[in-house]
Design the sequence.
């Protein structure tokens, strides 16, 4: 390890007279090495071919899968990922995309997440956190997300930018759901109704509010509870009263159509 460190460091120091791109690559390689040194063990780097042998079959060296280039030993979940398991298609590969699309076809089982929406990237990182918590990390697979030295590649940095955007949007949605908790609803053959209570939308609060339709660009309207004492929110142009429902009513009937 020390020899490798010295080699990388020497090449990188020499790199101050070479193009910036080289220096960035050296920086990444050095940070991967420093992280390995700090954790006391070198980062294991697997090729895609090597990873593909870890499918849990009798002649396999083990049972692995990868998410965003991070490889995990999932032997403890053999009943899911081993041969005959419902999620065997994840074994021996990085099929990050399928974790959020649910497309388990050959085309869908890919690590290309470049066109996923910010919310999907957040969901993918939730899966990554799940594997980090429940399974044993093995190393990194060389390819889309990590280079040959195990250092992050550009595609990973791009995903991280999208992740930040997704986290920002999620925080905004969470803040919004506190301002506008969802209504309770029920349906029967005679029609339905929406109503508010101090726990509706799983937001426990001191006020119940009144049902309003909330219009959000790009999606259909939904019923939210609005606190009429909060002028800032109750007067929003994005909110509409239910037809035939008194302004102060905590419950509104819905038509059968
Ligand atoms: C995007 C779609 C889905 C993905 C990516 C997905 C993925 C997974 C994965 C990876 C596991 C294993 C977790 C572990 O290691 O413990 C799992 C377990 C499970 N999934 Fe899914 N799943 C999806 C949709 C569904 C749906 C729609 C259902 C039910 C209708 C479902 C039912 C289950 C059940 C019951 C288990 C636990 C099985 C057991 O404990 O034996 N999943 N899922």
Sequence:
């Amino acid at each position: 390890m020390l020899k490798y460190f010295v080699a990388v460091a020497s090449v990188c120091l020499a790199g101050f007279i070479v193009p910036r791109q080289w220096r960035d690559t050296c920086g990444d390689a050095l940070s991967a090495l420093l992280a390995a040194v700090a954790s006391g063990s070198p980062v294991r780097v697997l090729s895609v071919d090597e990873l593909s042998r870890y499918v849990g079959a009798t002649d396999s060296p083990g049972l692995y899968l990868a998410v965003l280039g991070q490889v995990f030993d999932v032997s403890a979940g053999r009943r899911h990922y081993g041969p005959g398991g419902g999620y065997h298609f994840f074994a021996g590969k990085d099929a990050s995309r399928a974790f959020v699309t649910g497309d388990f076809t050959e085309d869908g089982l890919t690590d290309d997440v470049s066109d996923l929406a910010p919310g999907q990237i957040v969901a993918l990182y939730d899966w990554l956190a799940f594997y980090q918590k429940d399974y044993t990390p093995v190393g990194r697979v060389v390819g889309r997300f990590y280079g040959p030295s195990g250092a992050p590649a550009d595609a990973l940095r791009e995903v991280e930018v999208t992740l930040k955007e997704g986290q920002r949007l999620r925080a905004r949605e969470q803040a919004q759901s506190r301002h506008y908790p969802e209504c309770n609803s029920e349906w029967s053959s005679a029609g339905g109704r929406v109503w508010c209570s101090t726990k509706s939308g799983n937001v426990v609060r001191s006020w119940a509010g009144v049902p309003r339709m909330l219009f959000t660009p790009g999606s259909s309207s939904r019923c939210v509870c609005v606190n009429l004492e909060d002028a800032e929110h109750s007067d929003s142009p994005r909110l509409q009263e239910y037809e035939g429902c008194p302004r102060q009513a905590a419950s509104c009937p819905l038509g059968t159509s």
Notes: Residues 77, 80, 87, 99, 102 surround protoporphyrin IX containing FE (CB under 6 Å). Residues 180-254 form one domain. The longest helix spans residues 154-179. The first strand starts at residue 44 and ends at 46.
